[in-house]
Amino acid sequence: MTETRPPSIDETSGERFKHAPDTPVAESCDRYQLLEICGQGGFGAVWRAEDRKLGREIAVKRLSERLAGDPESRQRFIHEAKITARLEHPGSCRSTT
After folding, report:
1. In terms of residue numbers, what domain contains 36?
2. What's the whole-model pTM score?
């Protein structure tokens, strides 16, 4: 099944994601190529992605379309990202905002 959605704004960088021509489900911006959804919940989805600048696989969490228009939800999402970015532990992966 082909998934289609309108372009959306990445709230942390302000960059616009567009559908990648080679894979209908993937989205991209200049630096990140979203490849597939790893998991999702009520707040958003985590994508397997490629960081084109560093040439490595990463995970990207995106706020759900349903909540993207709600300023309070966007603020909670950014707050969560900032807290996660401060975590340092051998059992956790590095996070950036």
Report:
1. 8-86
2. 0.61
The tens digit of pLDDT for each residue in 40-83 reads: 998 899 999 999 999 999 988 889 988 999 999 999 999 988 99
Is residue 97 included in any domain, yes or no? no
Amino acid of residue 24: P
CA atoms within 13 A of residue 3's CA, in its CB half-sphere: 11
Torsion sign (Cα): 83, 84, 88, 94? negative
Is 18 inside any structural domain? yes
Mark out the alpha helices in the chain (DSSP H runs).
65-68, 71-86
Q: Which amino acid is at 70?
A: D
Residue 29 belongs to domain with CATH number = 3.30.200.20
How many domains does the chain divide into? 1
